């Protein structure tokens, strides 16, 4: 792991890919399949400090998405991305590297969310990237979660990108006054986009500037969030350069909005995203 005192970062060097994963938030920071340029976007201004979310890679937004439903003082996107997880497995095969992390309820999490849980993040790093988040209810009453694997993808030029797979899909537009709208045709970008699509579908990101297409498959996810902050919002984000927005797009496997997931005692729920070139 990298020399950042008190902030372990695991570096993966495998014939199929290189990657970096921070213990803070079990956060996949970077993934670069061999022979390709980096697929995940990591802000050069990302803050790498315990307890802080990392701008880029795949933030684990859990057990709520965006602001806490009733208490604005609680952290945006839940607490999983701000907590130190525990590495419980790291293994290698010809196809890549598997790493598994766990976050268990404790006094600190109970302050924020009064439920007993285990959260398991499993990452398969190879020529494709597969990230699974399993929620286990270890308590005696059911609980509901909202969540997202908040993937930041590197793109060459957002103004040339086309997102396919969400045509004719309803979505919650959260830019300005929140409103339900209907997607006609492919998604293109000429302003801030922050949309929660009600969709189980596989999404393709066509990026002519980098001459590549990325395919984002999902399971256990009823929502696909598509976000680019554009100029004004980028200027309000201290950990993102103002001129960075043309070079990334978030396509997130999520359960957000009305698609919260209820987990009964002793039961488990899994959300997964797979990224392939
Ligand atoms: O995924 C889209 C979104 O909800 C945006 O509204 C924006 O807030 C983004 O997440 C980033 O949130 P963060 O707390 O990481 O700055």
UniProtKB/TrEMBL annotation:
It catalyses: alpha-D-glucose 6-phosphate = beta-D-glucose 6-phosphate. Signal peptide: none annotated. SUPFAM superfamilies: Galactose mutarotase-like. Coiled coil: none annotated. The active site is at 150, 252. GO terms for biological process: carbohydrate metabolic process. Keywords: Isomerase. The keyword Isomerase applies. The keyword Isomerase applies. It comes from the Bacteria. This is Putative glucose-6-phosphate 1-epimerase. Its EC number is 5.1.3.15. Belongs to the glucose-6-phosphate 1-epimerase family. It comes from Prosthecobacter dejongeii. CDD domains: D-hex-6-P-epi_like. It is an enzyme of class 5 (isomerase). Transmembrane segments: none annotated. GO terms for molecular function: carbohydrate binding; glucose-6-phosphate 1-epimerase activity.
């Amino acid at each position: 792991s990298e020399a950042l005192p008190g902030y372990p970062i695991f570096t993966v060097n495998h014939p199929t890919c290189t990657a970096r994963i921070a213990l803070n938030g079990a956060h996949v920071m970077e993934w670069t399949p061999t022979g390709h340029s980096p697929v995940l976007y990591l802000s050069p201004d990302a803050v790498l400090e315990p307890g802080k979310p990392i701008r880029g890679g795949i933030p684990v937004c859990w057990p709520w998405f965006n602001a806490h439903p009733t208490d604005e003082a609680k952290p945006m996107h839940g607490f999983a991305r701000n907590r130190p997880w525990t590495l419980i497995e790291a293994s290698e095969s010809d196809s890549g590297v598997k790493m598994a992390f766990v976050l268990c309820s404790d006094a600190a999490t109970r302050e924020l969310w009064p439920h007993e849980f285990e959260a398991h993040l499993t990452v398969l790093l190879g020529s494709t990237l597969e990230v699974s988040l399993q929620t286990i209810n270890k308590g005696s009453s059911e609980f509901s979660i909202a969540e997202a694997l908040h993937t930041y993808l590197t793109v060459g030029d957002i103004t040339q990108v086309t997102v396919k797979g969400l045509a004719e899909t309803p979505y919650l537009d959260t830019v300005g006054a929140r409103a339900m709208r209907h997607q006609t045709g492919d998604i293109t970008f000429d302003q801030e986009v922050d949309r929660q699509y009600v969709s189980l579908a596989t999404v393709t990101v066509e990026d002519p500037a980098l001459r590549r297409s990325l395919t984002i498959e999902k399971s256990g996810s009823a929502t696909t969030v598509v976000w680019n902050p554009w100029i004004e919002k980028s200027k309000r984000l201290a950990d993102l350069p103002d001129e960075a927005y043309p070079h990334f797009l978030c396509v997130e496997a999520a359960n957000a909005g009305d698609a919260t997931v209820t987990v009964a005692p002793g039961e488990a729920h899994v959300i997964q995203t797979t990224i392939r070139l």
